[in-house]
Amino acid sequence: MKVSSSAARALMWIAGVGLFLSTSVSAKAILGVDLGSLYMKVALVQRGAPLEIVTNMHSKRKTEQMILFDQGTRFYGADASSLLARKPTKTPGGMSVLLGRDEDHPSVKVLSERHYPIIPVYNETRKGLNIPIDGGKQSYSPEELTAMVLHYAEEITHHYGKEKGNTYGDITDCVLTVPSFATQAERQALLDAAELAGFKVLSLIDENTASALNFGMDKTFEEPQIYLFYNMGASSLQVSVVKFHSYEVPESKYSKKMKRVGSIEVLGKGWDATLGGMEFDNRIVEYMADHFNREWRKARGHDKDIRDIPRAMTKLRLQANKVKHVLSANQEIPVHVDSLHDDMSLSIQMTRAQLEELCDDLMERAVAPVHSALVAANLTLDDVTAVELIGGGMRVPKVQSGLAAVLGEKELGMHINSDESMALGAAFFGANISTAFKVRQVGLTDINPFPISISLENLESDKKTSNDKEVWSKQATVFKTNGKIAVKKTIAFTHDEDVHCALDYAEPETLPTGSKPELQRYKIKGIAGFAKEMEEKGLGKPKVSLQFELSQSGITSLIKAEAAVEETYTVEVEVEVEDDEDKASNETGAADETTERKTEETKDASAETTEQSTEEAEKADNETKAGNATTDTEKPKKKTKMVEKEMKKTHKKVLDVEEYHVGKIQPLSKELKEEYKFNIAELARMDKERMLLEEAKNQLESYIYKVKNKLSDEEEMISKISTEEQREELSKLTTAAEDWLFDEGDSADVATVKAKYEELAKPAEKVWFRLSESTARPEAVQALKDKLKETEEKLNKWFEGKDYITDDEKADLASKFEAARKWVADKEDEQAAKASHEDPAFSSEEVPGQMQPIMKLVTRLMKKPKPKVEKQDTAEKADNKTSAEANETVKTNETEKVESPSDEKDAAEETVPGGEEL
């Protein structure tokens, strides 16, 4: 089989230009989300602002990746963590670690080995894991739980924006981090979870690659530098060898001046998928559990194991994590867990030496991935320029000392934030591949550590029983080990039957333990029918081309399938050729022209000695020119003939491709996605209703206390505007509402709680209104009277000298003043007739409005223009008089000479004196 592969291309993305990904130009912000085993970190990039870490509702820069399901309510992050020790079976955590894995995967089996309260189980229908909540009363897939966590990431981003006075709108564009060793099944499961959450994933990016990008995004290395990134997280260890260098690009497309930009190239990767900070925690947990068991069995006389008690083990795990952190900075710590179980407490003393002894065997595992990464990069320790430590687990002193012993004189660098660099690098990567942002130019090349191969066979091969015909099959490695990602490869072969294509990992032994080699399966149809059609035309077998893509997210898929047949045929075409006789005639004509030209030259040479008239000379010249013109216009005659010409035509057909999956773990089907989206939306609706219900209950409860306090604190003032019966009725309503809230209100819905609030608020607000109006209303009336008097006095002064203000306008204004005063007097009389406990005749808010008609008319009068006055000085009048007399004299003289006026112009001049002024 012929395998054609394109040249290896590095993924080089420049600021604002995505070569392999199309993104929304309208994106206002992009999230970089690092889903760790314990904590989630969210970074935000938006236009006109630097990269930043999003703080959650508790103002923390990282959020616990866990959800508490309790009585139809979901609690996230710190809210769930605070109740974890009390409700461990209702609080799943670290769900992203379970994506795309089965119950036999080491990362899943370790949960039962470490006595976690929630153990995932395999679901045959779902073809994946399910996580039972509260003993199986509820059950969710890892994709659903991860989608909920991602949705919470969007919520805290919106809350973070509101605190800063920003509104981001819908934030759906994101880049998510994955471990370097994540297989396609695990990556696809994360993409499915993001889809359930309503996110648009621009790309997945390896955790170490994101950290390297965060480290090198503001650096330009003149000479290539090799860095080793050592990342020990909560659940795994990853090591990457990265090359930093630079290259030149034009400053702009219109400039020839060059500038250097940084470039990052991943050379090799190594890992230990189950060695992380939680492994150190577990050693401490086991030590404390053994100690408690000895004391417990001695005191109670039984052989029970504390490891069988989920709540007690959760307390130990929480305490073990604190012990590890303290011993990373101190030599010893007293450990005390009050009432761990059975009315017994745990009290021990631990030292750093004890912890290092407990974890001594882990150090060999902690350095092995360093050698694996160097081998993959085809380098040695001498080639490494520097080492950068990231991840929380690297803070353990034993890890640092063991690593330093292997690396020799290499300094262990900590120049980037070990917790946040992955999220920040992911956000920066998203800004680069999105066309909505313009950021610093950086080049990036990442690699795929697992080779991928295809297997081809006839689609109907199982139906062929003939033994004398060899079964057709082909195999090829499409993407090699540590090959660059974001590339496309095409496989071409000649065939005339429909084929089945299997896409698998080529070397299953190189995969992380527990990973499955099956990727995707394709039924490619249409080849046989196309081949038969070509055979009927007398053509050969089709050439089938299958194009595969290894995307930036590390997902391999068949993106194009077509068959083609090239047909060669001959056609007769008419071409022009020169006639031989015409060609000879043309040659003779050309010789005569040469002779004639020579004769002309001879005539010109002897013209000085030959006497010739001007007319004869001109006649001879004209004849010569005419002869030359005749010669120039004579062209050789052409003739045509038929010749055979070879032509090529390509017949193409786009093939039908049916995709499906096999194996124990499979991506979510379309039906499951719709079902999970509905379930998540229903949970979100219930959460919203719960929040609205809590707000309504809080509003009612606070109002009850407000009424109680007001009746007590302002009893004297309230008694002036209410009767004893009104106050007693209001007090009874308050007591009844309080009793209802803490009894029947527990099961009431939002509408019922709001109705109860209105039942109490309606009479209470009438009392508060009369109370406030008892002072506000007289103040408003007095303010209006003062304003009327002041305005009227000012207007009377302003009218002086304003002759253009008519009497009617003044009268109109006076009537409006009178109307305002009458309204006040009438309302005061009406209010005086009412009792203090009755609703007032008018409110203080109505009083200022009586000035509006007056001020509207005053504004119009003040804008009224003054009339224009004609002014002429004495000199100008004299000039006009002289000019008029002169015009009269001229007119008289003209009248004497002319019997009648000659035209209309003179008449016009006669009737318009002083024309210049007009």
TrEMBL record:
Organism domain of life: Eukaryota
Region called Disordered, residue ranges: 574-650, 825-918
Compositionally biased tracts (Basic and acidic residues): 594-606, 641-650, 825-840, 867-882, 891-905
Cellular component terms per the entry's GO annotation: endoplasmic reticulum chaperone complex
GO molecular function terms listed in the Swiss-Prot or TrEMBL record: ATP binding; ATP-dependent protein folding chaperone
Keyword Coiled coil: yes
A GO BP entry: endoplasmic reticulum unfolded protein response
Record key words, sorted: ATP-binding, Chaperone, Coiled coil, Nucleotide-binding
Parts forming coiled coils: 669-713
InterPro entries recorded: Hsp_70_fam
Protein name: Molecular chaperone DnaK
